[in-house]
Amino acid sequence: MRRSYNLYLFSLPALIVLVLFFVHPVILTFDMSLTSFKGIGEAKDIGWRNYERIFTRDRYLDEIWLTLWYTVIVVSALTVTGLFFAAMLHRLPAIRNFSRAALYTPAMMSFVVVGYVWQFLYSPINGGINVALRDLGLGWIEQNWLGDPDIALYAVAFVQIWMFTGFTCAIFLAGFANIPEEIGEAGRLEGASSWQRFRYLELPLLGPSITVSVMLTTIGTLKTFELPFILTKGGPDGATRLLSIDIIDNLFGQYKFGFASALSIVMLAVVLVVALVQNRLLAEKE
What is the CATH number for 104? Predict the structure, then answer.
């Protein structure tokens, strides 16, 4: 009993911080979402009208779908690229430290800096990508990368993938470090190739690292705002207008605090549902 009491006692500061800075703000946000508050004046209670507007208009349902699709693209690519580079660096210890630092550097940069640099690179006239393609004789591949609704979302997703590949690579390298060397040696003695050792020995043991990587990148991507806003501001023609952009636009652009709060609660619900489903599925795979 005393040990149990001590555990609860030491958990109390964390619980207090959680309640004050997460639970309480969420409750206040939900309360505001049931009003038509404009930021000044009295908050008029309108019931569930904000939520009815969200779920009865195609625009907001499309934004939820677009946010989920963007997350699928980014998380899938980050998992594959991070795992690929981690597997390569695990087998090349001579360049591991330098390469790990180089890969992780973009993740330490400001979203604003990264956004404006890639906005220049994507420029359709004198942007670095199109100029390089012309110099290589591949001018037929040139695109208006951020101005074409068919490819703008993928162009924005590529920037986020480039930025955080080093982050997922670091997680997987930590997972490789926890794999006993005897397992690899046993595979070599049995004549297993490098691919066979990775596929049948290492990959199953990377289950916990995959779970952590997918969970963190999913939650971060669902909430992403900076890169789509800086690169396209939700355009062209709403092709990159994620739910987070609409929340900021309603909050600071139109001063619809009540409606922005309702969108925030919907986003929180989406994040929680996706995270819980992912955690259950990935835990079973482990």
Answer: 1.10.3720.10
